Each structure stands twice: as structure tokens, then as C-alpha cells.
Amino acid sequence: MHFNRFASLVLLSVLWVAPAAAQNYPTRPIHIIVPFPAGGPSDVLARLIGDKMSVDFQQPVVVENRPGANTVIGAETAAKASPDGYTLLMAIDSTLVMNQYLYKTLPYDPIGDFAPISLVAKTIGLLVVNAQSDYKSVKDLIAKAKAAPGKLNYGAGTISTKLQGYLFNDAAGVDTVLVPYNGSSEVAHGILTKSVDFVFDGPSAELPLIQSGDLRALAKLDSRAFPALPDLPTLDAAADLHLGNLTVWLGLVAPRGTPAAVIDKLQGETAKILNDPAIKARADAVGLYLSSSTPAEFADFIKNEAARWQPVVKKSGLHFD
To answer: What is the pTM of this model?
Structure first.
């Protein structure tokens, strides 16, 4: 009798402590791990969210860049962190979807090790060349690639953009060679120094160089309007291809086991930030199209993306171990 009463009191105390802890959260700095170098879409978005979150939560939000191994290093670090809401991961599609098909073994489980918080953005992609090159259009690029099979190379810094290159080769009937980079800043440097003939990337690192005249965008990879380059055609329209919309998406996750009340608080704050008209305008201007979701919606989205990309990865033959 006394034991049952004691057990009931313990259970009630646990049930009370969890929401109370979430109500007081956060009481110390929050760290957002970005699995890329500074300057790319993940880093820009993490800092955009972190700056506003730190004001609203009245706690510092620290962005930690942990680049390498196709986001595996950053993802593993986040997966092993304490599930208390003080370590988050700005994941991209390859982190939560493609990597499981590219490695025989991963040091993290993309589904089992993370608690989804919210989708954050679906960025617009660009096909970019050096402005001093002879390529004035996608058709020029394809013609040169067909005339010299295996001689042209392209740069890409994420799994998604590497696969975009594969899909482009397949649709255009060309043979170009992938040069892998470790994030957008490296991709931009590669095309700026003519280390590669063309690149697939988001606009965050390349757009200033396009606007300065150092680089030339030949096409965008989906049909959404891009005010910064209003006359830029889609890749499909530019070369009569049939790839459809190809986008890189980003989302915020926490280590699995993070209290649901904390996840909900983070999701609410993230949605508030992403739907702020001023922040949305800043992000949209550089092709980082913001998109929020509930944790359940984000979990379903990840599952659907996994089903979509598995056959593409298999057909591409791309793997890393």
C-alpha cells in the first residue's frame, strides 16, 4: 500500500518535472551544429535562426561548423549529444536521406538517432560557369561536353548537388566528371579559379560573384521565381531536358530522446522565425526559400524523400565505402 503510494508520487513528480523543465527552457546556451564550413546555405540559415532565437530565448545560440564526410562528422556529433535541447543539428537532405544509401555503415541512424523539429528551407539550385568561359548557355555546355566525352568536369559540395550532376549527365546524354568539394564556399572557389568547368550549387556563395560579373548562371534547377536573377531559365527549358524540380532541403533536428515539450517549444520558435516577413524576405532574396513544418510533418517528409531518392542513388552507382 505504502509502496504503491510512493510509486504514484514518483510518477507524478516525473510528469510534473518534464513540462516544468520545458517551461524554463532554455537556461543556458544552445548549440546548432552545421555540418559544413561557414558561408553555405546551412550556415547562413543557422545563423539567421540563431540570431533571432537568442533574442527571443534570451540565451546565446552558438553555431558550430563541423564539416566533413558528407555531413557525417557533424551528424555523428549531434546524435551523441545529450538529448536535452541544448544541441541541435542543421541537417540537409543527404544527412537524413541519401547517406544511408551511400555508406555500408554509418556512425549514426538518420531515422532512429534524431527527433525532427521542423523543415527549414528548400533552396533553389543553380548551374554556374566562370564568366570568362565560352559557355553562354546550357546548350553551349552540352555541345562541348558531347564533343569531348569525359573531358569536362563539374564541382558539387553536397550529395544532392552531386546527384544533380549525375541526373544532368543522364538527361543530356553527356559524360562529365565529378570533382567533389566540401561545401558551397569551396564550390564557389573552384569555379572562380576555373578548377572545374561548371558547378551545381545553391546561390548563397555564388550569387555575389554572379552579380559582380565573375561568374555566370546558366540555369536554375526548379521553376520557382528567383527575383535576384529574374530572367534565368530553368534547366529543363534551357536545354529541353525533363528533370523536373531539383531542390536541396534543410531541416532542424535534435538528438532522439529530447523531451517532446522541448521539441514543441523549439518548433514553435522556429516557425515564428521562419514566418517573420522580414526574415523571409532576406532569405528568399538569396534563394533560401523558407518552409516550416510540425515535427510529425517533417518526419513524414523525410520518409517520402527516402523513398524518392533510394532508386536514384542506386542507379547512379555513387557510394563512399
So the answer is: 0.83
